[in-house]
């Protein structure tokens, strides 16, 4: 089972992020990589959870998101959506962390 990884790309001068962004991904998922690229470009800290070899984690994501596709993104316990919802939240300035 892959361990979740905390990715902090904000730099030492950034203010602490108040909410936790969790992204559930698969290694071969191009939209997962695109979502992580958006987060990295915006210097957002996130925890990545790989679901490839973890059926329990994949089942949890499906149950809590209502979707079978990846990535699925949660801010604290609130489901944000997938890649397109993440991209829209950046474009509209509605992603609050």
What does this entry look like structurally?
The protein has a five-stranded mixed beta sheet, sandwiched between helices. The protein contains three helices and five strands, in the order ββαβαββα. With 97 residues, the chain is of the alpha+beta class. It has helices at residues 30-41, 55-65, 83-92, and strands at 5-7, 21-25, 46-50, 72-75, 78-81.
Kindly list the characteristics that best describe this protein:
3 helices; single chain; 5 strands; alpha+beta; 5-stranded mixed sheet
Which SSEs are present, and which pair or pack?
Blueprint: E1 5-7, E2 21-25, H1 30-41, E3 46-50, H2 55-65, E4 72-75, E5 78-81, H3 83-92
Q: How many angstroms does the end-to-end distance come to?
A: 28 Å
Strand content: 15-25%
Note the run of SSEs as H and E. Answer: EEHEHEEH
Report strand order across the widest sheet: 1-3-2-4-5
Tally of contiguous helical segments: 3
The assigned structural class equals alpha+beta
Question: Sheet bearing the most strands, described?
Answer: 5 strands, mixed
How many DSSP-defined strands?
5
Question: Helicity range of the residues?
Answer: 25-40%
Rg (CA only): 13 Å
Unreliable stretches (pLDDT < 50, length at least 5) are none
């Amino acid at each position: 089972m892959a361990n979740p990884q905390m990715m902090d790309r904000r730099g030492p001068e950034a203010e602490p992020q108040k909410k936790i962004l969790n992204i559930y991904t698969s290694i071969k998922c191009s939209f997962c990589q695109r979502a992580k690229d958006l987060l990295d470009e915006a210097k957002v800290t996130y925890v990545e959870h790989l679901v490839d070899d973890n059926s329990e984690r994949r089942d949890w994501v499906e149950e809590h998101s209502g979707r079978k596709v990846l990535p699925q993104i949660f801010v604290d316990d609130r489901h944000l959506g997938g890649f397109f919802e993440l991209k829209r939240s950046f474009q509209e300035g509605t992603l609050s962390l």
